[in-house]
Amino acid sequence: MMKVVLVGCGAMSKHWLDAARRIDGLAIAGLVDLDAERAWARAREYDLGSAVIGTSLDAVLAETKPDAVFDVVVPAARREVALSAFAHRCHLLTEKPLADSPDNARAIIAAARQAGRVHAVVQNRRYVANVRRIRRFLDSGAIGQPTSIHADFFIAPHFGGFREEMAHVLLLDMAIHTFDAARYMVAGEPASVYCQEWEPANSWYRQGSSASAVFDLGSGKVFTYAGSWCADGFRTSWEGSWRIVAERGSLLWDGHDGLKAEVVASGRDGIIDKTQAIEVPALDPADRVGGHLGIIQDFMRAIETGTEPETRGTDNIKSLAMVFGAIESAETGRRVAIAKETP
């Protein structure tokens, strides 16, 4: 039985606890929140009568001696939680983003390495079935090597609360999902970015609700991102809308179930090469999917087998670097080199 303490009992914790109660061999040994009543409410909601409830993570870890910590706190508190978890010899699975700054991200990864603990991030868009299918399809070479990756993200949610007041709200709060999916699907290594943010007249956010960015993903791959948190009408999927252009064809994904590809055929219609539809194979049984559930299972498997989870911190920091590179570019108005993060 793997014992876990969850810290941060806000709205997002429900996704974690919903997944956790579906996993045999996992027990929530404690709940921690600065608001004790909120932690008690979660304990009652999920029938966790035996869980230790507290406002101090160190105290609850000392009492319960768990195997792992689930970190669902606000990003600004992430470094403190991570260092506490590793000090108590716990493995750590954290909500995205990995950290609130590049320096804090590197400090967390260094602490995990020093402690010899498994550290991973809930970057759950990788566990979407069509993201897996696209990666396998592109790896097969059916349309050649990808060269141009384009993603649109246009949704208009009225969150209320902190998001509507935060700086760089789209890039910092949401874009990492799209950035990580792009990097994963085409096996990209981010090298540079140019980004512009703006606040449309129709926006209800304080700053950064709309952004456009161009990334160099290495090996001749360019990724363009266009997004908005305040675009009413014709909204995209939460996964975005994608076009991937490759050497011998293209792939389209609407972010839902619409996934199709075409490959160059023989002959031309006038000055345009002919193309023909090509099947994107179904999900491979070996592909791990399932959002929070899939990631938690992958995290547990890594602990049990002594391997590394797919969304390990040493890999996820590369996607986080894309976010902070885009923010720096938007603030300075110049193209920004993205430092290569070493595992």
UniProtKB/TrEMBL annotation:
Residues 131-251 form the GFO/IDH/MocA-like oxidoreductase domain. InterPro entries: Gfo/Idh/MocA-like_OxRdtase_N (IPR000683), Gfo/Idh/MocA_Oxidoreductases (IPR051450), GFO_IDH_MocA-like_dom (IPR055170), NAD(P)-bd_dom_sf (IPR036291). Pfam families: GFO_IDH_MocA (PF01408), GFO_IDH_MocA_C3 (PF22725). GO terms for molecular function: nucleotide binding. It comes from the Bacteria. Residues 2-121 form the Gfo/Idh/MocA-like oxidoreductase N-terminal domain. Signal peptide: none annotated. This is Oxidoreductase domain protein.
